[in-house]
Design brief:
heterodimer, A: mainly alpha, 2 helices, elongated, B: alpha+beta, Alpha-Beta Plaits, Calcium-transporting ATPase, cytoplasmic transduction domain A, 5 domains, 7-stranded mixed sheet, 6-stranded antiparallel sheet, 24 helices, disordered N terminus
Chain lengths: ~50, ~700
């Protein structure tokens, strides 16, 4: 039982962390341009 | 993305431009770097999904300067204002509820598995309380899209798929909470959350698909004139937006420009292409005092036009009013899923009531009977049924989009599958809508003459010149080197080639469109132009007929030119049809019980497109056509039509199979539930298994486009 008392909050906390990260991503515009995000990694920033 | 040297002005203006031509990382880099280097532009940020560029710049620059900058980089652009500038997404508002439902579902499932595998006593109570703490807020938040839609339907005295879903979720949650409080054996939180998560996933996919189609269509928009060069009383020229034009204003119209408002010609003569407005393919000659209509294309020479009507009074606005009326007629269509819900919801609720009554009569007590009745509701909750339609449509739309056909509306596939009568417009639909040089005449040109013609044509922006240049380039002709090039508006291009005078100009007299190529000391060449049929036109019509659609032509063009196309395609045709006539014809056919598919592109087809059961427009269509149509195909070939019809029919076949599969599961599970044998575990397994089967079956549509 003591293991449960420790593990359940940890599991929930990690899950909530993921959820919070997702909401942060949603708020900061990460989902505005999915096609662009996929294409941008191919742009060579050092190019003139 | 790119930091810019600060300019003197401190308040940057922001402009959004639509750039339909960008599609890869190279385009993004080219546009962002290319714009950032220009003076006055602070930053440029591309949104590839919406095909837009957001530019922060000095207020001194206006949208037209920015369009010119993009043209220099090599992209065509259109300024976007108001609603079009914001890329509104239908999927965005569903993402947060989906994330919450998935998170809660997984955590509650973790706790539920422990309970199913034998957790007992205080551990079970603790797990149930934890589940309740996670599930109830999550259900309230992520179930909102369903509750709202169900409430909206109920308030209007109707029912849709969301009504049984909402009732099922609410009752299951309430029962589970009661069980938790009283220390009961079974809680159904996991089932409710799984249901919400699955359904939201289906809807988010559906919305993403529509977003993608919509942004594709938005990028195509913008053929309509947005303004005109206006000659002020003091003789100065200035740009005025279309909505600010007033009767009496004088517009100066260059060759190749579209007219922004109805008016009468003050100076000059020219010919006007009215194909978009009336479907008429032969250009109309107009001189001083003659009327010109908004939306028509000035072909030959610059003219001054006095505005006689603008805004709400133009022919354009009249067509818009016709369309509004037509669209209202169509909105009465009830989607298949909602028709299924009309039968399904009462059946399920009756079953649950019967189960309750049966167990009461058998003497089980009201609590036990109620639990069983709710179990029936949960097990029949249309999880797979809710996925049956959207998943099939998403997969089919995705396959169509890869084939160059955009599906703008979810119910469009359902309506297209039922179509049994097709009406095709002529100009721009059966034909490409652009005058193209006669291939036989081009083949007869000696190589030297062809290269001179290409060189002359390449210096002009006149639509005829551009078509000639494109055709000759396609034949592999290289332009010759010319000197002293001059363009005489309304007449043609003049130059010197190897010391002799050459010209590409309008013939003195010719029926239809043509150009003459003069090379001093050589015979004169006449190159006739005509609007050609799209490739694969005959095969497309044959395939449509093989699928049981009656096909005919309805066109606003003159009988003679319609007759020619009718002969070539072997179709029955109606000519000289005004927008009202087309709409009436569709009304008559629909009244006779036919499901009408309208294919058209022009403004004149707008009311017909909006009024038909289902409509398709080519990507080259007018804004009005693009917005009114359910499908837009962005390819030359007319084979898009039979392809779309066959995919729509395949989709409806799969949807019907999905219904059978989903209801089949319910038929198996309902007797168990009514017998009181269903546990939350069985409910969870049945729900996910039937959903997976339905999704799997729908995925077969990915290869449906042939």
């Amino acid at each position: 039982m003591t293991g449960l008392l420790f593990l359940i909050p940890v599991a929930l906390g990690l899950g909530l962390l993921g959820l919070a990260t997702f909401f942060w991503a949603l708020r900061s515009g990460q989902f505005e341009d999915p096609d662009g995000a996929a294409a941008r990694i191919l742009i060579d920033e050092d190019a003139p | 993305m790119t930091a810019l040297p600060l300019s003197r002005s401190d308040v940057p203006a922001e402009t959004v431009l639509a750039v339909p031509g960008m599609h890869c990382a190279g385009c993004i880099a080219k546009i962002e770097h290319g714009l950032a280097d220009r003076p006055g532009i602070r930053s440029a940020r591309v949104n590839l999904s919406a095909r837009q560029v957001r530019i922060a710049h000095d207020p001194a620059l206006d949208a037209r300067d920015l369009v010119r900058e993009l043209e220099r980089i090599g992209f065509e652009a259109e300024p976007r204002k108001g609603a079009l500038a914001r890329s509104q997404s239908a999927a965005r508002p569903l993402l947060a509820p989906l994330a919450v439902a998935t998170f809660a579902c997984m955590n509650v499932m973790l706790l539920s598995v422990s309970v199913w595998s034998g957790a007992d006593g205080s551990t079970r109570a603790l797990f149930h309380w934890l589940s309740a703490a996670i599930a109830i807020p999550a259900i309230v938040y992520s179930g909102m899209p369903f509750f709202r839609s169900a409430w909206a339907a109920l308030r209007r005295g109707r029912t849709n798929m969301d009504v049984p879903i909402s009732i099922g979720i609410t009752l299951a949650t309430a029962l589970s909470y009661y069980e938790t409080v009283t220390g009961g054996h079974d809680a159904w939180f996991d089932g409710s959350l799984m249901l919400i998560a699955f359904l939201l996933a289906g809807r988010a996919l559906d919305a993403m698909m529509r977003d993608r189609a919509r942004s594709g269509v938005d990028a195509l928009l913008g053929h309509a004139p947005r303004g005109a060069m206006v000659v002020g009383p003091d003789g100065r020229l200035g740009w005025v937006a279309a909505e600010d034009l007033r009767p009496g204003t004088v517009m100066r119209l260059a060759a190749g420009e579209r007219v922004a408002a109805d008016g009468a010609i003050l100076h000059g003569t020219s010919r006007f292409d009215q194909a978009l407005l009336t479907g008429e393919s032969t250009p109309v000659h107009a001189g001083e005092g003659d009327k010109v209509l908004a939306g028509t294309l000035n072909l030959d020479a610059p003219v001054d036009v006095a505005v006689s009507a603008a805004g709400q009074d133009t022919t354009l606005a009249e067509i818009a009013r016709l369309m509004e009326a037509a669209a209202q007629d169509r909105s009465k269509y009830v989607r298949l899923a909602d028709r299924a819900a009309r039968l399904y919801a009462p059946a399920v609720h009756t079953l649950a009531a019967l189960a309750f009554a049966g167990w009461m009569i058998a003497g089980a007590g009201w609590y036990h009977s109620l639990v069983i009745a709710i179990a029936v509701l949960i097990i029949t909750c249309p999880c797979a049924l809710g996925l049956a339609v959207p998943v099939a449509q998403v997969v089919a739309s995705g396959a169509l989009m890869r084939a160059g056909i955009m599906v703008k509306d979810g119910s469009a596939l359902e309506r297209l599958a039922k179509a049994d009568r097709a009406l095709l417009d002529k100009t721009g639909t059966l034909t490409t809508g652009r005058p193209q040089p006669d291939p036989a005449a081009l083949a007869q040109l000696p190589p030297e003459a062809a290269s001179v013609a290409l060189a002359l044509a390449s210096y002009s922006r006149h639509p005829i010149s551009r078509a000639l240049a494109a055709a000759l380039t396609g034949l592999g002709v290289r332009p010759a080197a010319l000197d002293d090039i001059t363009e005489k508006p309304g007449t043609g291009m003049f130059a010197r080639w190897q010391g002799s005078a050459v010209s590409l100009r309008r013939p003195e007299s010719a029926s239809g469109i043509a150009v003459t190529l003069d090379i001093a000391g050589q015979p004169t060449w006449l190159i006739p132009f005509a609007d050609r049929l799209r490739p694969d036109c005959a095969e497309a019509v044959t395939r449509l007929k093989a699928m049981g659609l009656d096909v005919s032509i309805v066109s606003g063009d003159h009988a003679a030119s319609v007759a020619q196309v009718a002969r070539e395609t072997g179709l029955f045709a109606q000519a000289d049809a005004k927008p009202q006539d087309k709409q009436e014809l569709i009304g008559r056919l629909r009244h006779a019980g036919r499901n009408v598919l309208m294919v058209g592109d022009g403004l004149n087809d707008g009311p017909a497109l909006a009024g038909a059961d289902v409509s398709i427009a080519p990507g080259s269509a007018s804004d009005v056509g693009l917005q009114a149509a359910d499908f837009v195909f962005v390819q030359e070939s007319l084979l898009a039509l039979p392809r779309a019809v066959s995919v729509a029919r395949a989709t409806m076949r799969v949807v019907r199979q999905n219904f059978v599969l989903a209801i089949g599961y319910n038929l198996l599970a309902v007797p168990l539930a009514m017998a009181g044998l269903v546990t939350p575990m069985i409910a969870a397994i049945a729900m996910s298994a039937s959903s997976l089967v339905v999704v799997g079956n729908s995925l077969r549509l990915a290869r449906a486009v042939r």
